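Q: I'm writing a short explainer about Fructose-1,6-bisphosphatase class 1 for a general audience and would like to include a description of its predicted shape. Could you first generate the structure from this sequence?
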Amino acid sequence: MTVNRRILTLDEFTLQQLRQFPTATGELSSLLRDIGLAAKRVNVEVNKAGLVDILGDAGTINVQGEDVKKLDIYANNQFMGVLQHGISCAGIGSEELDDFVVFDDEVSNQSKYVVMFDPLDGSGNIDVNVSIGTIFSVYRRVSERGKPCVKEDFLQPGNRQVAAGYVIYGSSTMFVYATRRGVNGFTLDPSIGEFCLSHPDIKCPPSGKFYSVNHGNFFQYDINVRKYIDGCQRKTKETGGPYTQRYIGSMVADVHRNLIKGGIFMYPGTTDKPKGKLRLLYEANPFAFILEVAGGKATNGKERILDIQPTELHQRTPLFIGSSEMMAELESYLNQE
Ligand code: AHG
Ligand code: MN
Ligand code: MN
Ligand code: MN
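A: Of course. Here's the predicted structure. Afterward I'll give you a sentence or two in plain language.
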């Protein structure tokens, strides 16, 4: 098979971006390369998950109190491993780990960035062969370089992100990442083992037909959220509908579809869990950054997600995220008395 040389690989693309900034050091390119490598390793295991014993519950409970699947731990170790051995990352925070990890070696202490990630998102779907993903978020550290990174490096508001992205292990495996300059998507070409630029400069359509929410929790949602969902069900041609409800239960897959096709994704607070389920630092912030760069919006119902000052590593937040016009309509419901 011949390789189409008009298609850039992830590494070629990040280097090309780098050349446009004479002062850039290449540390972000190298960080993205590290994450891409871990993603390829995890992809191999995800693809054979039905065959090997790595599948299934690991029998422990993670810091969020959820059952941990073996692949969650495998993915966590792969991402942590490449970042620890790379030259760009001073430390990490992970959905699967109680506390942040300071790498604290000579090279890492000189590094510019800290990374936070959800190593496997939608892991409840592994056993049933449904798309899952990885989500990551990159911050420039606020602590002094040359010293070990500190907690404040991890508790920065989302508007300080330098880059954020996700990997979707789906019918194809894709790597999508955003910097302030744009969102770009790369599809894994399994014949050469490289992520190739397939979705340049992704923009989220201002409106769409998809709404994604767990209807099973409907009666636990706030009255205004229920009214909005009810409104989605009543959409007609005349009012921009009809809408289609799509909810996979893997946020990566649900938000990816809505980013490309236009739509809205919601994980509101419930009476049982007023702050919802999703984590601000590993799930809401990276997607809020990606969607905003692509032209969309993200809020917790009261405040822009990216402006929330985090107080804890694992804090949760309600999340509403998607196409700008759909978000404006949602907000008109949420602002009702
Ligand atoms: P994780 O697998 O990382 O714990 O996250 C799962 C999340 C998210 O991906 C998904 O949208 C949501 O949980 C689904 O939750 P419900 O089943 O409560 O709707
Ligand atoms: Mn989990
Ligand atoms: Mn998750
Ligand atoms: Mn997870």
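A: For your explainer, you could say: The first strand starts at residue 57 and ends at 61.
Q: Perfect, that's easy to follow.
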